[in-house]
Amino acid sequence: MTREEFDTLRLQDPEGLFALIQQMLARLAALEEQVAKNSGNSSKPPSSDGLSKLPLKPMPQSLRKKTGKKPGGQKGQTGRTLLPVEEADQVVLYRPDSCPHCQTNLQDAPEVTYTRRQVFEMPQPKVIVTEHRRVSVACPCCGKESGGTFPTGVEHPVQYGPNLLGFATYLSSVHLLPFARCAKIIQDITGTPFGAGSLSHALETAFTRLAPFSEQLNAALQQTDHQHADETGCRVAGKLHWVHVRSTTTLCRLFVHEKRGSDAVGDLASYRGCLMSDFYSSYVRLSCAHQFCGAHLLRELTFVQEVLGQSWAGSLKEVIEQMVSACHDTREQGRIVVEQTGSLVGRFRFLVAEGLASNPLPELRRTGRGRPGKGKIRCLLERLRDYEDGYLAFLFDLSLPFTNNEAERDLRMVKVKGKISGCFRTVTGASVFCRLRSYVLTCQKQGMALLDCLRSVFIGSPLWPSLNPA
Question: Fewer Cβ atoms within 10 A, N terminus or C terminus of the chain?
Fold first, then answer.
């Protein structure tokens, strides 16, 4: 806009000029807010922070507070020192041949005592080829031939065994190594030819054999009293898809869907427990009970306090942190009710009311229809007012967590997989990964040995973790 156009608009249409300036200021504020957001004050991932140290984009600050403890292991912590075993697998004796003092032969001398040192070592990996022969014999009575029966699992003229396939799957599904690197590791340590195609076929076999597990896992999650839900984006077949998670402390189900919202959360339509989420609207519209992530709320309040300069947000953060501390103290004391609940909830409501008074609804537009948007601060405050029970559920029920970290931890390796391999080339490949991760994470949460579990899949009788919803 030139100066002449500005003067003309100022004289002929001052209301229009005022509205234009208001729009520009609102747009500027929105852009400044966008630049100021990072993983410490919003839901943006840490990978988006970059290495910038410019004033407009400071490095994020952790929400964790100092505990006063020294770094390293704490008193009472169980160590993992390597300890000797009572019975070694093999013993090597070192006897002196002759007396160093008088040179007498000591070959038949009795033992007096000994000092032991143990070395823990793994054997050199080596593939053992077992040939299975189906022998046919002729009956001496009727002369007809009959043959033996190959054991279960021996189905092809040449194939890999369950130990090797379980180890390959372990490298891919647990440690997220690319197919080619998994194949190279197996070739290097065993000296046996192994290709990426063999690994792909093994994963598809495991996917098929774990289908009953996946169905029963989904049914078990529907019966839980409390579960976590979250989602994260990933590239599948060149398009944006979403990996969704449903998890508890002992169960985990991952699945891929082309949608993020209502179409993808249909599995929760009949759920009647309490669902922990980050207040994504598709979850909130479900008819079950709700709890909302406290870590997300603290980051939002950090942004309102530090970037937008509203002091009530800092005070509200302190109250919420006091609630969390009170819950920890109550658990340590063996009690089930937080004594100062009433005063803490009262301060919470007071500060929310103070924030609402400081951020009134915007006035009606002087031109045009309707009311301008409420803004993020007002929306946050109304959310805290209207969904107080969901945000403070952890204070009234000490069995509930404060954050949605359970789901976020289960999803984290999906992002690592994306950084390593870039994307999934097919929807089938993404589905295979999600089902195997579901099995691995559920077994891991229940303390099962993952190599044994994956080996059992290829034997044909998978070890099943407990699917008890309790």
Answer: N
